[in-house]
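Researcher: Go.
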Amino acid sequence: MNKETILVVEDETIVGLELKEDLERLGYFVPEVLETGEAVVQAVARLQPDLMLMDIRLRGSLDGIEAAYQAKAEFDLPVIYLTAYSDPDTLRRAALTGPDAFLLKPFDERELAANVQLALSRAKSGEPLRRELRGAMSLVDALDEPALIADLDGRIAHANKAAVAFLKVPDPSMLARVELSRILEPGWKESGRKLVKLQEGGEEAAGKIASVERLLRSDGREYGTLIVFGSMERRERLLLESSAAEANAALIRLLPGPSAAGPGYRVGGFLEPCLSGSGDVYDVFSAGEGEIAFYGLDVMGHGILASLMAFSLRELLPVLGWGRGERAPAPTEVVRSLYERYDRYDRYGRLGEGAIGSTFFTIAYGTMDAKTGDYRIARAGYTPALHLEAGGRMRVHYTKGAAVGVISDAEIEEATGTLSPGDRLILASDGLLAAFGPGLLESALERLSAYADGFRGATLEDFVGGFRRRLREATKGGQMDDDVSLLVIERS
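Model: Structure:
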């Protein structure tokens, strides 16, 4: 039997070790047993397992359902849930993540073996490409322009509401019968990222365009085609027309400059995107009189769709964060607005009113009083914010908040602090934490803190440059499998 790699996530140590022994007896390789949801994405990136066994109830701020959602969205990984809880609410939440199986505790080795073998067989049969296609559908739903996804055979797999209306299809179930060759001019399959003209009844439709983009996984395999109709905003259209490298360069050009936070502060950071297209972005902007807003976000997945979503969120967040009274909205209000705008389901699995799609991204969003340095930060699935004091002490802000796209009414907590002169506030994506070695989130943050302390007294440029060097050392100068970003705000 091939030694497929299986990652076990179980917060009861004895149970986890028993699972490891059972799986190894069945001929599988189990490199680690994790105990927290926060460690999952980093471990998956590092170990590249073929399957994950996930306990639903875990320690920490991430339960197994959200941790599995992140791992599946980022790495298209089959998941089997392990749980002693079979209540309808838990099962409904878990079902939204598209698991490959449920195992109710207690279970025997025969049940374990059968479910593992079935999940691995499905993964080998092409199911990952189909799951990737389903994941892209939710991002299409979030676009305002008419857009659709076609499968590898050229059939329409999904269209958003605007596209259904645009194509004048009376029933969405009829989309599968629509031939793209009748909608687009000849040669559209070979057009790649080139714009082509939409045809209606043999007549050219004035002012209408269609942008065709091949959808690629992070490993370069094609899984479908994105087609967007209409007269998009010029910058969005250019992004869709561009290659992944050009899209990455466009996002990097949008990053804030050193003076983005205003007098008395300096901003530094970097974005190292993966080759297939970045979903990471960060920004710093004015949120009203004397208020600074800042965030780091990570759209799960890669490719042009993830880049387009990151671009759209960058345009939206200043609108949500601008003060409409005496002060800017609290970070929890902004995160709640994102939940309401993008989440499709609540914790009970009910379809929300007015939601524009079940997109999935993590974000840490904060505001700061420019005069006092007092800040507030809320995070939704993003890595904890870090406050490096001038004296070398590192504060880690662990707070509750589910990733956007998991549940719409998750509990949100706010962290507070004061950035004193010489202090630095740090938002680092999970890709950067992976550069500080394997293990739990807490261990990676401890190593990051120790590394940061070695740059005490260094300029902001040298501080950021040091982290960039560490990243390149960790990847041995090669290409990252995940996007990596770092934002640092320093009070002068």
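Model: The chain has three domains: 6-125, 131-241, 245-491.
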